Amino acid sequence: MTEVAAAEEDAVPTDHLVVLKSVNKHFGALHVLQDIDLTITRGEVVVVIGPSGSGKSTLCRTINRLETIDSGSIVIDGRPLPQEGRELARLRADVGMVFQSFNLFAHKTVLENVTLGQTKVRRVERARAEERARELLDRVGVGAQADKYPAQLSGGQQQRVAIARALAMGPKVMLFDEPTSALDPEMINEVLEVMRQLAQDGMTMVVVTHEMGFARSAANRVVFMADGRIVEEAAPDQFFSAPRSDRAKDFLSKILHH
Ligand SMILES: Nc1ncnc2c1ncn2[C@@H]1O[C@H](COP(=O)(O)OP(=O)(O)OP(=O)(O)O)[C@@H](O)[C@H]1O
Ligand SMILES: [Mg+2]
């Protein structure tokens, strides 16, 4: 490709990996997602912050269809979210998710945890799946733990296994919902470091977190939610130094000065 063609390609704004349009969701009378419009570009790292109950987890869960929506649309890499069946299983593999609680299979070894989805959903041959699992476990710094069971690992190690397990599926985008909230302080950084590396390697990421240091250093964009709405979005520097909305100012003053 010539430089001009490359520059033109860079300029084309069609590289939209996750597109939410007018998404609404209720839990009974509670309007938990209100007209959410959000476009995430390939390679972008979006940090979602906001008060408890503002809808951050629900937003993440709709993106891989752990929750259905009432209206609007969600398109991943050009395709609307599938309703069910094998298409849905494939979508779940394309959209990796890491939760606050590590959600590893307790009765499977670490290696099996990272191998299983590959063989079952991606139909990768077992030996290759194990090879890839070991590579990924090394990459997140827990290669030596491959034959242990999750309960034999620290929280930080378990969370890194959970990240490796999601990565093993070759996801297009990774969703993180407060991945460090359940961890002891000394383990938070080892998980954030893995996430930082992933961001640097170009993974598209949506991260719900209270770790403002991570947001500042790794995010391309901060999305601030309150009461089921996206109230404000901006580059991290701009958001943290000059939030525009009163809700964001109030929220930041509480979390940054406690
Ligand atoms: N399955 C459910 N049934 C009914 N209400 C729910 C359900 N899940 C969430 N809610 C409600 O929806 C609102 C948004 O919840 P959500 O978990 O998305 O918020 P959040 O921003 O992730 O909060 P937190 O920071 O505490 O994790 C809350 O009022 C919550 O009580
Ligand atoms: Mg939540």
Describe the structure.
- The protein has 258 residues and is α/β, with parallel strands linked by helices.
- The chain is built from ten helices and ten strands.
- It has helices at 3-11, 56-63, 85-94, 110-120, 126-139, 155-167, 185-200, 212-218, 236-241, 246-256, and strands at residues 16-27, 30-41, 45-49, 71-76, 79-80, 95-98, 173-177, 204-208, 221-226, 229-234.
- The strands form two sheets. It has a six-stranded mixed beta sheet with strand order 6-7-8-3-9-10, sandwiched between helices. It has a four-stranded antiparallel beta sheet with strand order 2-1-4-5, covered by helices on one side.
- Strand 9 and strand 10 (229-234) form a beta hairpin.
- Helix 4 crosses helix 5, helix 5 (126-139) packs across helix 6 (155-167) and helix 6 runs parallel beside helix 7 (185-200).
- It binds adenosine-5'-triphosphate and magnesium ion.
- The site of magnesium ion has 3 residues, from helix 2.
Structural class: alpha/beta
Percent in helix? 40-55%
Tally of DSSP helical segments:
10
What is the strand tally? 10
SSE topology:
Elements: H1 3-11, E1 16-27, E2 30-41, E3 45-49, H2 56-63, E4 71-76, E5 79-80, H3 85-94, E6 95-98, H4 110-120, H5 126-139, H6 155-167, E7 173-177, H7 185-200, E8 204-208, H8 212-218, E9 221-226, E10 229-234, H9 236-241, H10 246-256
Helix pairs in contact: 4-5, 4-6, 5-6, 6-7
Residues 56-57, 177 line the site of magnesium ion.
Write a concise synopsis of the structure shown.
With 258 residues, the protein is α/β, with parallel strands linked by helices.
